């Protein structure tokens, strides 16, 4: 069994979604593999650009406050690029390769794009909040590791260090990112209520109303059942993948 087959995984750690390598039934063909490798290399490079931007801005300012503006454009671009990952890769490869819920995986992709555009971009007042930096840093580190993991797995040459980081650092990064996301949505609530952002009031010709303020509260509540499922799933995957790796090393 190759390295990718023995321990590689496309299951998500709460910050994106792609294929998982254990229990592969049938992998992508040569053309699809080439596309996936190129896609993952580009995404790895993109998140590295974001990481470098954060470090440079911090060194220039001498402060971690309002670092969001230094990486706003690349963050929007590469986080939105996850929609391409979700729309093309999940339906085509995930059901036959990964024993996990496509619904949960789609939630992970959409929630991050939603937070990027419908909250942080739309409510300018939250962009200076320190909680934004929490999820930006967590996303950045997670995605660099995740896309590197996918690239090396597709090439059947996965370094143990990357595998270990993929299945260990999420223990801290996932709660950190979720905390930043929830705090950012919470910080946006007063401004959404005051401005009536994206809300539709009655009466109108469609006889339809929508309260974006209430919707954001429901989004926050949705984290309660979903976060534990994803987190404990990754803990289970960590035990399975890393234990298999240790057993493989002992048998050599």
UniProtKB/TrEMBL annotation:
Transmembrane portions of the chain: 30-55, 101-120, 167-192, 212-232
Keyword Nucleotidyltransferase: no
Keywords, comma-separated and alphabetical: Endoplasmic reticulum, Fatty acid biosynthesis, Fatty acid metabolism, Lipid biosynthesis, Lipid metabolism, Lyase, Membrane, Transmembrane, Transmembrane helix
InterPro entries documented for this protein: Tyr_Pase-like_PTPLA (IPR007482)
Topological relation to the membrane, as annotated: Multi-pass membrane protein
Region Disordered, annotated ranges: 1-26
Name the UniProt record assigns to this protein: Very-long-chain (3R)-3-hydroxyacyl-CoA dehydratase
A biological-process GO annotation: very long-chain fatty acid biosynthetic process
Organism the protein comes from: Asarcornis scutulata
Gene: Hacd2
EC number: 4.2.1.134
Lineage of source species: Eukaryota, Metazoa, Chordata, Craniata, Vertebrata
GO molecular function, one term: very-long-chain (3R)-3-hydroxyacyl-CoA dehydratase activity
